[in-house]
């Protein structure tokens, strides 16, 4: 499983041009083993069977709390349903059901039940 996150309110100075939120989903060409050894993949791949995209949309500085799980929305996507692109937009994700922290585990379990088991291609 892989988690990707983004937030509408950032702690650094906002850029002059606001761009649509994108999440990186690029195929990987390998992985780091033991923290320092690069192991190339036989072919570009994604190592996770399920992706969770977390979106924090609170923009009011007085109420925004990135540490509050109730303020996040989660999109659970089996890897097999990801497009063959390097990024995925928030707008694309928002066509799917959003989950709050209370329904996230059930959504992950539902996705897990639909994922066919395959041999591991990387440690972990």
Description of the structure:
- The chain is mainly beta and 124 residues long.
- The chain has one domain.
- Helix content is 12%, strand content 33%.
- It is built from two helices and seven strands.
- The protein has helices at residues 90-93, 104-114, and strands at 2-7, 22-24, 28-33, 37-45, 50-56, 72-78, 87-89.
- The chain has a three-stranded mixed sheet, covered by helices on one side. A two-stranded antiparallel sheet has the order 2-7. The chain has a two-stranded antiparallel ribbon with strand order 3-4.
- A hairpin with a 3-residue loop joins strand 3 and strand 4.
- The longest helix has 11 residues, at 104-114.
- The protein is globular, with a radius of gyration of 16 Å.
- It starts with a strand and ends in a 10-residue tail after the last helix.
- The relative contact order is 0.24.
- The mean pLDDT is 89.
Name some characteristics of this structure:
124 residues, mainly beta, three-stranded mixed β-sheet, two-stranded antiparallel ribbon, 2 helices
Task: Walk me through the topology.
Layout: E1 2-7, E2 22-24, E3 28-33, E4 37-45, E5 50-56, E6 72-78, E7 87-89, H1 90-93, H2 104-114
Parallel strand pairs: 1-5
Antiparallel strand pairs: 2-7, 3-4, 5-6
Would you list the SSEs in sequence order as H and E?
A: EEEEEEEHH
Gyration radius, in Å: 16 Å
Largest sheet: 3 strands, mixed
Oligomeric state, counting identical vs distinct chains: single chain
Could you provide a short overview of the structure?
The chain has 124 residues and is mainly beta. It has helices spanning 90-93, 104-114, and strands at 2-7, 22-24, 28-33, 37-45, 50-56, 72-78, 87-89.
């Amino acid at each position: 499983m892989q988690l990707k996150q983004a937030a509408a309110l950032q702690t650094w100075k906002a850029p002059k041009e606001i761009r649509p939120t994108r999440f990186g989903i690029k195929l990987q060409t390998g992985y780091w083993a033991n923290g320092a050894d690069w192991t190339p993949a036989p072919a570009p791949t994604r190592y996770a069977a399920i992706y969770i995209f977390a979106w924090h949309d609170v923009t009011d500085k007085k109420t925004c709390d990135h540490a509050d799980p109730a303020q996040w929305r989660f999109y659970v996507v089996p890897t097999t349903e990801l497009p063959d692109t390097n990024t995925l937009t928030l707008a694309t994700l928002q066509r799917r059901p959003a989950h709050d922290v209370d329904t996230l585990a059930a959504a992950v379990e539902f996705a897990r039940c639909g994922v066919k088991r395959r041999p591991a291609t990387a440690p972990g």
